[in-house]
Structures
1.
Amino acid sequence: MKLRYMTRNILIQYLQWHFLDAPKSILMAWRNYLKFNLNYWSILVLLKTLFSHWRRYYYSYGKRFDLGRYFEALTFNLMSRIIGAILRIFFIALGLLIEVVIIFVGILLLAGWLFLPLIILFLLFGIIFGLKIF
């Protein structure tokens, strides 16, 4: 029993691998890098907890009312939330920036892979015609 890929011409096998099979693998790897980056920076979690306390640092207001303690806890808790929001926004922006870099690098790699046969032919013709000049 002959396998399907063994009955085809080697050129057709190469073209199928280069332009169909390998780009699928590149796209899958690219998707995995994008998912990993989102997961690594925890962008969705940071968005959900944007105004939470920084590192869960907060003061309790106490069981009985004390005006000094109340304002102390209020200011500390507000500062903790503001610091948490600023740092979370910074990490979200950094993660999204790296996501954009991954997108551009993926586009360059995929385009480079698809145009690689033309690049190789161009370089070979350049070498051949360059050597004939001398």
2.
Amino acid sequence: MTKMKKNFKLINNVLYPLIALGILFLAWVVAAKIVNTELIIPSVRSTFETLFALLGQKAFYTAVGGTLFRTIVSFLIAFAAALVLAVLSAFLPVLRKILSPAVTVARAIPTMSLILLTIIWLNPSTSPLLVGFFIVFPLLYDSFYTAIAGVDPDLVEMSKAYKVSKKDMVFSLYLPNIAPAFFDSIRSTLSFNVKIIISAEVLAQTRKSMGIMMQISKSRLETADLLAWTLAAIVLSYLLEIVIYAIKTAVVRWQK
């Protein structure tokens, strides 16, 4: 039975993603053959040759490092604000009612409008940070609040009845119940934040960023170069997801 579960897990986590990736690359190859114009759809070979060429350049790591830094900083600020406010909202219903309209407004602001406004308000380096915060904060706040409010109220009441200390309630009741949802939300929003930050960098023309490198590739009509940077962004998002998943796995094992 255990062997069957391992095989099923291997199929879900490895085989299916590889099949999906293979289909995407096949579609890319077919489209490139049909169009037969490198300017419009570069071949897989030329794109990867360009990507490997970029890997040998210092500017590549400077750009990736700048984007990664802005992604993490904006995410951490949004994470801290969302966590604190979600905890307070879960135990103070009045605060939840006060914050609800503001969170709804933040969620409803068009991304492009927000980027353009922040370019007016801030300099090109800090503009993506504010954009990332405004986009990610509502997602994290709603997810964290739902996870905290979703803890079984009967268990909470039972803990209070048996006079369980607040410390034990936090570490033995709340954290084990909300940790999976927390990490799943963090993993999805962190990788999503990479896309938001890069989009803001493109319009703000942020120096030392993946966004500005994509903008330069587009202005020069270097489509293979643009696709290479796109692949780099996808890999960066995927690596961040792997890191969060590894942390989640370690925490779950520790709790057990």
3.
Amino acid sequence: MTSTPSNYERLLALADAVFAVRSDPAQLDVDEAVLDRLRRIHPASVQEKVTPEGPIAWLLFIPTTRALMDDFVHERITERELCERTPEGATYHAVYLCSGLVLPEHRRKGVARELGLRALEAIRRDHPIQALCVWTFSEAGRAGAKALAAEAGLPLLERPARH
């Protein structure tokens, strides 16, 4: 008898399928050390929605400086370098929506919107955020980022898409 994968395992498989991090060293390979660093940059950087069945959505943000964001958007640095070079304890003017994953049966229900707005609100309480940035891997991701930026009243900066 084959066991059904847990929500956690399904989100990990979804991340592998969407981002293919293992075959692209420019991307941020998220592990516990990266999650700890993101939380040190700002506690709201790591967002998760959990039901009694387990996690159904993850969103990761990197608050950063405008100079680093400009370097990232113009492809002068990689996603990995953006995370590594973002100084802890600095004043941040931009937020990069690094990753957004929602299990298929929970999509189009406002879960990513809720998590994204919660994160941006918390980060903006502490920093003068002037822009949201995204590097999309799908048209759905781009549409979600555009909607989030519009609702938050922020311009959307886009690194050339991967889809």
4.
Amino acid sequence: FAFMAFMFPVCADAALVDRGGGLVYDADRNITWLANANYGAGSPQDDGFSTTDGFMTWQSAVTWAANLSYFDTVRATTYTDWRLPTTSQPDPACSQQEGGGAFSAGANCTGSELGHMFYEELGGTAFGSITGSSDPDLALFSNLIGDGYWSDTSFDATFAWVFNYGYGLQAADNKGLG
């Protein structure tokens, strides 16, 4: 899956703010997210198990984000500066430090944008699905799937970082899998 974010400064006191028009602002990270966490479903890049499930290979997700044009109905503005979320490496908060501390995986990875959203904003817990959270901010999003969301950060030529919202885990996954 591809969960999209773009940088857009807004002043706010709360960590997550419903901006309206299908956008949610994270004041901690200064990022605006699409409220529909599966907005890419049915797009030309939807190349997973079906053409309408939102599953994408990593390259398809990168292409989708780079070409996304989203019309904000509240502000009557079109935004085209989308990207996939980033994954900080290494992330000392993660449960697994690999490669002599060169990269981080596992649970509690809050350094990545997806991990921050899962653990700190939406009340997720390690090895627990986000859909079980009672955090009221969860209602700001629709179509949030307990599965992996791609990050824009490559691990190597074959793998990229993904964050699984079904288990709260960060890992490198094959870029060719959708």
